[in-house]
Amino acid sequence: MLELLNVNAFYGQSHVLHDVSLRLEDGAGVAIVGLNGMGKSTLLKSIMGAGPRVTGTVRFDGQDIGRLAPHQRARLGLSLVPEDRRIYPHLTVSENLALAGHAKIAGRAPYSVDEVLDFFPLLKKLAGRKGFQLSGGEQQLAAVARSVLAKPRLLLLDEPTEGLAPLIVDNMGEEIRMLRKREGMALLIAEQNVDFARDCTEHVLVLNVGRITFSGCWAEFDADPGIRERQMSL
Ligand SMILES: Nc1ncnc2c1ncn2[C@@H]1O[C@H](COP(=O)(O)OP(=O)(O)OP(=O)(O)O)[C@@H](O)[C@H]1O
Ligand SMILES: [Mg+2]
């Protein structure tokens, strides 16, 4: 489904990602872990075409998407929830969700607002509240819900649990697992919360100063505690 070959990413003169190659099969779940500033967000933005200058190859279903604008990638089925989650502050939760219905993915009917609210019971109670009347965690939940409305084929989540209360984290994990199962949605998630990442995915990559220094399944990651000590100081 997604293939990166020797991807390098730059902000001006600053070279952030170094020869990143990875494959994500249809419907697969992969976590990107690593310390602050290692390039997790840059990797997600490079896949979406939203930010850094990128060299190398990014393919989606075999098609080279490296020159497509972010909205064109969205139409193919990619959806990014950035770390600075942006929902419209003066629109209600329902109105924020309804807007996402306009971003159609070729060949897929979006969920309705009510369906999405049914997936996220915590949010359902807040459907009539405006964005600015939500806590940071509730806004994050709304941003995730909005991004799944169009029924993406590949969801790119940037640290969705940052700053969230444990109850909301548990809920979000359940909802993400359910959505993946339901539509065979693939997931690439940048997370510092390793337990949450493990709950949502099958594979894990470690990014260390812009390079992939570990790639494997969670059992392999867990079998070598040195990985966490050496590369993540966790
Ligand atoms: N817009 C930008 N302009 C210049 N440098 C940037 C920009 N965004 C990020 N960087 C730099 O690129 C490197 C990687 O940043 P990135 O945001 O990808 O890290 P991260 O792994 O997501 O970190 P965090 O866990 O703190 O979110 C850092 O050194 C950062 O300072
Ligand atoms: Mg980041």
Word description of this protein:
The protein has 234 residues and is α/β, with parallel strands linked by helices. The protein has a single domain (2-232), classed as P-loop containing nucleotide triphosphate hydrolases (Rossmann fold, 3-Layer(aba) Sandwich). It has ten helices and ten strands. The strands form two sheets. The chain has a six-stranded mixed beta sheet, with helices on both faces. A four-stranded antiparallel beta sheet has the order 2-1-4-5, with helices on one face. Strand 7, helix 7 and strand 8 form a beta-alpha-beta unit. It starts with a strand and ends with a helix. The model has no long low-confidence stretch (mean pLDDT 92). The site of adenosine-5'-triphosphate has 12 residues, from strand 2 and helix 1.
